[in-house]
Amino acid sequence: MKLFASLLLMATCLVAFPAHAAMPAQPSLKITTLDGKPYDLAAQRGHWVIVNFWATWCVPCIKELPDIAHFVSTHPNVRAIGIAYEDTDPSDIRAFLAKHPVSYPIAQVTMDKPLKDFDEPVGLPTTWLIAPDGKVAKHFMGPITSAALSATIGK
Asked: Where are the bilayer-spanning segments (predicted)?
């Protein structure tokens, strides 16, 4: 009877909490940016890429946006893409970016349509640093700094 109860509990958990596929070591990302341009992470091979999940209401996210832009502008082998992770109208994000401009592309992902190859952030900001070979080099939870990026990249 205990075995049956244990199996029933496990089956219930599997239905209630389906298994989440692990994020691939070499994720893909094909998305349209807020300015209507296609973005393909694979086209960035040969460069380090900062994939930064953020939101307009997230104070630490707002603080790190210019830091990321500065890091990218001072490191020729580094690119970035910002992923606005929120269910707001894209025009609101564009208005926000007019007040807080960045030098890298921004796309929006809504919570009901997460990216296929990236784990859903459990908090914001969340950043993945992708190595020149396309593999995940580091996952950062919380604000990133130039020092942390430099330490991972080796510059």
From this structure: none
